[in-house]
Amino acid sequence: MAEAQDASAPLRAGAAWNPGFALRPELANAIAEVTAPGKPHETRVETIRGVDFTVFANAPHNLRDLYASALNHAQKDFYVYQDERYTFQAMWDQAAQCANRLRGRGIVPGDRVGIALRNYPEWIAAFMAITSMGAVAVAMNAWWSGEELVYGIEDSGVKILFTDVERTQRLEPHLEQLGIDLVTVRHRHNGLTTWEEFIRDASTEMPQPDIAPEDNATILYTSGSTAHPKGVLSTHRSITNALMGWECGGAIAMALNPQMGAAVGRAAPPPQNPPAIILTVPLFHVTGLVVQTLMSFRHGRKVVGMYKWDVEEALRIIQDERITEFNGVPTMAWELVQAPNRGKYDLSSLKSAGGGGAPMAPEHARQIDKTIAKGAPGTGWGMTETQGLATTIGGPAFLQRPRSCGRAVPPIVKVKAVKSDGTDAAPLETGELWIWGVQNFSEYWNKPDATAESLTDGWVHTGDIGHLDEEGYVFITDREKDMVLRGGENIGCQEVEAVLYEHPAILEAAVFGVPDERLGETVATVVVVRPGMALTVEDVQSFAAEHLARFKVPDHVWLRTERLPRIASEKIFKRGLREEAIELLASAQA
Length: 590
Known about the structure:
By secondary structure, the protein is α/β, with parallel strands linked by helices. The chain contains 19 helices and 29 strands. Helix content is 31%, strand content 24%.
């Protein structure tokens, strides 16, 4: 919990942001100006769980206050889903009805309530309800099997679960053993309570229990590509400060570059198109929930949901809904660029396009800048454990450094590389990247040992390997577990992938290690051949050899014409590809 403060005592002012490297004077001045006392992004220092963090003095007290602030845009469209439209007011009213029914079912602050749905409007209403009345929203991975859903339910201890038809069917064999209440969304199943029945005739007056900033708000599970998912527990403060962190980073960028907008403190001209974003990833993913949806409450941004990712449908939505921002994983922006029918759609409303959650190949950045978001491609880096917030980069800086995922977002985030001996790495030295800030998670639910291994004095150990340059730009070499160790040499998979993406006939590429009796591991890749073009295994290897040391050239290459498999967050499912490759190699040797 945060330290209690005497109400009559002044709050501690924010200390100067010290990212661990020398700031250019103009950047230091911009940060100081934007975060100064009396400004919307004023900062102060507060002790939380024994660590002095920089926090925003004007951040919403909790998520309910965040939602309430959006009622300044009450009659604007908030969520569009196929032919359905919900204003901010309509979503608030439905959330309030749900919150009152949860209280009537005996849910009290601190209880866990689960959501296992597609990106239906009810997902958002349920989340708002749970977090507004002090309970903890457990976002279940909707791609999980029945057994995996049971794991999440039992691990988190949810008392009520909102499910749709697919998730209900997967859980049906386990309902008796679980002993929880299910509320079904958009279907009726064996007499279970439906969403409509659950909220019918309930009050639209939102409950007002006292919710402190340090109270628990969410449990999101780590990626479904791991064998044992961990529940990432986060507080209201960590989420609201992350939202303001992105916002503050934008204000600092505007202060640095007057061409991006009016000077700090002056009103910017009204935009040609109202802010609108397309929800490209699942809501149980931190990008979909925090970056794309919760951020939209801050300024009345419209969110347009999709039933599932489909590039043709995305192009139509961008045109018809006048989408101004596209933020998915990098492969999605790349698919927009490569779409055969892209020229048939009016994408002129799009002001920025990029993604996070995975590195963006340099060629992707160049093509995005050239075709769909001139001057404004971008990417970033973060984790579920950091609310998706860590670094960001866009525009000319990104085009100049296409292999970087950006700098730590001032003034609340710091990033450093830590060497294997536990000491901080110097600029350009490789180490494990650590992230510091109030946005970081509190703990892994029911896993104290894993928490202790991942959190040190406010720093999250990311497991990502990389370095910072002299100006603080972060470069990720690879995931520690994805590094190929070939005959004692470390090979970064992403370095190899970046080279392969430069080949004109390669549409997608995934690089990973496979076992080798002599060398321990060798490099393997699966590539997708661009439609209408020819490519051979030898072409791939000779091209790689032109740009990489010989030991980094893939020894095994598989060619495909279909899109590479993805996990729920739309990242390429490397673990599955690696397992398939190992089976193919074993069969060939048999």
